[in-house]
Amino acid sequence: SDSHFPVPISPNEIDYSLHYPQLFPSNDQRDRTKKIEFADIGCGFGGLLISLSTLFPEALMIGMELRDKVSEYVKERILALRVANPGQYQNISVVRTNSMKYIPNYFEKAQLSKMFFLFPDPHFKEKNHRRRVISPFLLDEYAYALRVGGIIYTITDVEELGEWMKTCLENHPLFEALTLEELEADPAVELLSSATEEGQKVARNEGRTFQAVYRRVAAAP
Ligand code: SAM
């Protein structure tokens, strides 16, 4: 259940020295203008974070994962990479949490520039659609956490879920689709299908994928 992991009362309470010790040796004296910028929601085994880490070495990133053992595995994986590659992988970390409940505890308004939802659980049955990580209600929260110009990346191998995520984003007033040119120019886009463990499994099985990548826009005046 959810009740066994600590949740920060507010984003300000997150101890950066625990997550990124080399970059922030002291939490009390750290530069508070430098904040987590990318979130990988339901990060699974962490493949995306690891690829993003070297692609965007200046950005701080966090994975959110509900399963305790999986989040522990990601933690260990990051520590091992840090040891094997001194100076690298210092900008990524993971928390065990329920992202459907606690996004506002982790991110301030307009803090994030990228949010990733890669191969989320499909919850096929109609009555379980409310448990999907992309929904009109949750998009309001994601729009709050993302800055204007920030990007939300989604991909799935379940066509129906792909349609659902796209429709939710399309109908939301604070998101607009990236153009083809913008998708091609964004180095994060090609990681969606290749960097995560789930993406690699789908690729091995030559499965189709369905992506929706949208930008946070300002509210209409
Ligand atoms: N993104 C990874 C990938 O592409 O390999 C993992 C995909 S896996 C199918 C979905 C993951 O989301 C699982 O690891 C699951 O534990 C996690 N998850 C499901 N609901 C969640 C929630 N409410 N908060 C955080 N993580 C969640």
From TrEMBL:
Reactions the enzyme catalyzes: guanosine(46) in tRNA + S-adenosyl-L-methionine = N(7)-methylguanosine(46) in tRNA + S-adenosyl-L-homocysteine
GO cellular component: nucleus; tRNA methyltransferase complex
Annotated keywords: Methyltransferase, Nucleus, RNA-binding, S-adenosyl-L-methionine, Transferase, tRNA processing, tRNA-binding
Keyword tRNA-binding on entry: yes
Location(s), subcellular: Nucleus
Entry EC number(s): 2.1.1.33
A Pfam family it matches: Methyltransf_4
Keyword set includes Amino-acid biosynthesis: no
Molecular functions per Gene Ontology: tRNA (guanine(46)-N7)-methyltransferase activity; tRNA binding
Job description of the protein: Catalyzes the formation of N(7)-methylguanine at position 46 (m7G46) in tRNA.
UniProt name for this protein: tRNA (guanine-N(7)-)-methyltransferase
Biological source species: Cucurbita moschata
